[in-house]
Specification:
Layout (H helix, E strand, L loop, with lengths): L11 E2 L14 H4 L9 H14 L9 H11 L3 E5 L8 H15 L14 E5 L3 H13 L4 E4 L1 H9 L4 H6 L5 E4 L1 H4 L2 H6 L3 H6 E7 L3 H4 L12 H8 L5 E6 L6 H9 L7 E5 L27 H4 L12 H11 L1
Parallel strand pairs: 2-7, 2-8, 3-5, 3-6, 4-5, 6-7
Antiparallel strand pairs: 1-8
């Protein structure tokens, strides 16, 4: 089979990546029934109904790539989703939380569809800044979430809150945590707590390309063990997903898939185009010395009101431009 090529549209592709060797229970897709609900037309209809009701500001509903990823996650399948920044990959953990909450609160509206009242998604994030941003975005959608960071752990301790009990008791629909915390004793207790195990529906890695880029012994070695944690510590019936925008087909993709334990023939690779037609690079040298303090050439770009990134060779130049623009 030929290796993947970057495509301009989303498609569900299965590739024979070598599975990670773990002493754990079989893949969720090996022990769950072959039939699925959400990825078929009736599942799409129900999902569209829930989105329209619970997130009315999403007037156009879900995009095609979002449907393919979300429905497979809801069905408990593993997903490797590559798409450009801004394509809505956050739906992978936003929408399942909303779906389970809506169905559990209104079971009569969705007869025959099971849901967890306290559904939880565990999301591994590389930085505390990203974790906090995700929590804020989820809060705007009415989704309870928590960033399990040093600062928040300290704050909870000062408030005499039992943070670990809050997580075990499924108070948060999405819990963001970094790879280093996963292997602390607290998490060994959280993942065996009966209520947590009964309600966790998925586990994902945000910015999953960093598994390959950062996961070395000299920087953040715990990135190498995200998949080991997911497969050996969490129930085998949950969906495992990876979200990323920059990985290319080939070796890097294979490394990430192997790390996360995506088994041959048992995961979906959704790859979309990374082309950003609304992003333009313009290289234009300054016509005066770098020791100057006036940068008229920047004004035409900045006056457009569009987002602009200015790259400088030195911090001194950065400061001079900053002072000029203030």
């Amino acid at each position: 089979m030929r290796r993947a090529r970057i495509r301009s549209h989303f498609s569900s592709i299965i590739y024979p990546y070598e599975p990670i060797s773990l002493q754990s229970t079989p893949s969720s897709l090996e022990i769950m029934p072959e039939t699925r609900f959400w990825k078929f037309s009736e599942g799409h209809r129900v999902l569209a109904k829930i989105i329209k009701k619970c997130i009315p500001k999403w007037t156009d509903g879900l995009r095609d790539g979002q449907y393919k990823a979300v429905t497979r996650i809801l069905d408990g399948e593993d997903v490797f989703w590559v798409a450009a920044t801004g394509e809505g990959k956050s739906a992978a953990f936003q929408v399942p939380a909303i779906v389970h909450d809506e169905i559990s609160k209104n079971p009569d509206l969705y007869p025959g569809i099971s849901a967890k009242k306290d559904a939880v998604t565990l999301l591994v994030t590389p930085t505390k800044g990203l974790a906090e941003n995700i929590v804020d975005e989820l809060a705007a959608l009415g989704i309870s979430a928590f960033a399990y960071t040093h600062a928040n752990i300290t704050a909870a301790s000062l408030e005499k809150r039992d943070l670990d009990l809050e997580v075990k008791d499924c108070m948060y629909s999405v819990v963001c945590v970094n790879p280093e915390h996963l292997w602390r004793p607290e998490w060994s207790k959280i993942v065996v707590f009966p209520k947590f195990r009964e309600n966790i529906i998925s586990a994902g890695a945000e910015e999953a390309h960093l598994i390959d880029e950062w996961g070395n012994k000299d920087f953040r070695p715990n990135f190498q063990y995200i998949g080991t944690f997911f497969r050996s510590k969490l129930p085998s019936t949950i969906s495992v997903f990876a979200l990323l925008a920059t990985v290319e087909p080939g070796t890097s993709t294979s490394i990430i898939c192997k790390n996360l334990g995506f088994k041959e023939h048992f995961f979906h690779l959704l790859r979309g185009s990374n082309e950003r037609p609304n992003t333009h690079f313009i290289v234009e040298p300054l016509m005066h010395g770098v020791d100057g303090d006036i940068f008229h050439q920047l004004l035409p770009y900045l006056s457009t009101g569009q987002k602009t990134i200015i790259h400088c060779k030195t911090l001194e130049t950065v400061y001079c431009i900053y002072v000029y623009l203030m």
